[in-house]
Specification:
Radius of gyration: 21 Å
Strand order of the largest sheet: 1-3-2-4-6-5-12-13-9-7-8
CATH architecture: Alpha-Beta Complex
Helix content: 25-40%
Number of strands: 13
Distance between the termini: 16 Å
Mean pLDDT: 94
Low-confidence stretches: none
Length: 449
């Protein structure tokens, strides 16, 4: 927790008790203490995004999702630390110490929402908000053994959320989603139901009502699963956990089948994702000397470290032309290609209730310089490939995803699984995830917490 609002939290908690004594009800979260990732603006409370120019930034208005939690009666304890401008798979920035994983302090909790996931796992907070542009909710949930939701693209308003630095135009208009962390799926469902929906501050968020779960029994569910993309093998512990999960569900009566959509080309998908990301981020941040030097250094590191064959999948340097000299025509061509991919995956998923997919190629890894290679069973993986190759496709497609814990590695680190659902069907997805969670296992506290 990088900014603790202890005095105001205690004052508000006292007011909540007094209100209850009078028979007043503030809402579904009356008096519940929550934390907020330090990229969501909080009125009167410092919001830095781990970015030096924002070290003293105190917003005058809440982000929409923060306002909705306050309106439901929540009390904000403070802000959770994150990657600088929400742009790393570790939670490292220039303002605060790096976040540690409560399962093993020598390991990262992931990123960019590492502070959120660590706080939930360690019991510092029961609920936290995060964002997800390439796995920033799902990878930390997997690394810390908690539940995390990435919503459908445009389901939840991003108003008042950085990485657009205050005063910059709204540029990240695709693939950026809001999600939440908790220690139970019941809390995920409650939080989502409170923060989803249209927002006058973001007219591109459609007024789609919450869906009604079908109520299917586990025995009636058709579940697809895959334990790895063939081009990007996962660690043996993760592959084993995925296979065990599929077998456990089949033994419980579900219809489970190993499946990959026809023509599912990982290299092509990652290429398209990075092109969309490049166009979205070109104008989202100031082009100051510090930012340019940092970005070029990270691109050089991920382009030169790790297995050469795998580097070809995640080499961001290929997209410098889009970053340095973007064209409107190129942007529209990229969005058209994305639309085509969304339609293809929508069609493919029609035959299934959910699709089970690994979260990352590895479980949590030890702290290291940003965008340095990650070891997976003795093979050096480029940083972006190890952490994002299994999450980025669902930012590209916009489908909602829930991560639930399914086991641990031989070293005692958590393993999570992605449960991919149909777009705009989060309540159905959560209901199915609850059924799977009852069979697979539940949240476990880290040792000593």
């Amino acid at each position: 927790i990088c900014t603790l609002d202890a005095e105001n939290a205690r004052t508000r908690a006292k007011q909540a008790d007094e209100a209850l004594a009078k028979g007043e009800d503030w809402g579904a979260l009356h008096g519940v203490p929550v934390t907020i990732k330090d990229i969501f603006e909080t009125a009167g409370l410092r919001t830095t995004a781990g970015y030096i120019p924002l070290r003293d930034y105190i917003p005058k208005q809440d982000a929409t999702v923060v306002a909705k939690l306050r309106a439901a009666g929540a009390i904000i304890l403070g802000k959770t630390n994150a990657a600088e401008l929400a742009a790393d798979y570790q939670s490292i920035n220039s303002l605060f110490p790096p976040v540690n994983n409560p399962w093993n302090l020598a390991y990262t909790p992931g990123g960019s929402s590492g502070g959120s996931a660590a706080a939930i796992a360690a019991g510092l907070s029961p609920l936290d908000l995060g964002n997800d542009f390439g796995g920033s909710v799902r990878q930390p949930a997997h690394f810390c053994g908690v539940y995390g939701l990435k919503s459908t693209d445009r389901r939840i308003s991003t108003a008042g959320m950085i990485p657009e630095v205050p005063g910059m135009p709204l540029c990240v208009r695709q693939m950026m989603t809001v999600g939440c962390f908790a220690r139970s799926l019941e809390d995920i469902r409650l939080c989502f139901s409170l923060i989803a929906g249209a927002d006058v501050r973001r007219p591109d968020v459609p007024p789609v009502p919450l869906d009604t779960p079908s109520g299917k029994a586990l025995s009636d569910l058709k579940i697809a699963w895959i334990d790895e993309w063939s081009e990007i093998p996962v660690a043996a512990d993760i592959r084993t956990a995925m296979q065990k999960t599929a077998q456990t569900l089949a033994n419980a009566g579900a219809k489970v089948e190993r499946w990959l959509p026809q023509g599912f080309d990982t290299s092509k998908m990652l290429n398209l994702y990075m092109r969309v990301a490049a166009y979205n981020n070109t104008y989202a941040q100031p082009r100051d000397r510090y930012n340019i030097r940092r970005s070029l250094g990270l691109i050089a590191r991920t382009a030169t470290q790790g297995d050469k064959k795998l580097r070809q999948l995640g080499d961001f340097s290929r997209f410098l032309p889009e970053l340095l000299n973007p064209s409107l025509k190129g942007y529209f061509e990229t969005l058209t290609e994305r639309d085509r991919f969304i339609a293809q995956l929508d069609t493919a998923l029609e035959s299934w209730d959910v699709w089970l997919v690994p979260v990352a190629a590895t479980a949590a890894f030890t702290h290291r310089p940003p965008w340095s290679a990650v070891e997976v069973d003795g093979r050096a993986y480029p940083y972006g490939v190890a952490n994002g190759a299994y999450t980025m496709p669902f930012n590209l497609s916009g489908h909602p995803v829930i991560v639930i814990p399914i086991g641990q590695t031989q070293d005692g680190l958590p393993i999570g699984i992605q449960i991919v659902g149909k777009r705009w069907r989060e309540m159905e997805l959560i209901a199915i995830a609850q059924q799977l969670d009852q069979v697979i296992g539940t949240f476990q506290h880290p040792p000593r917490y």
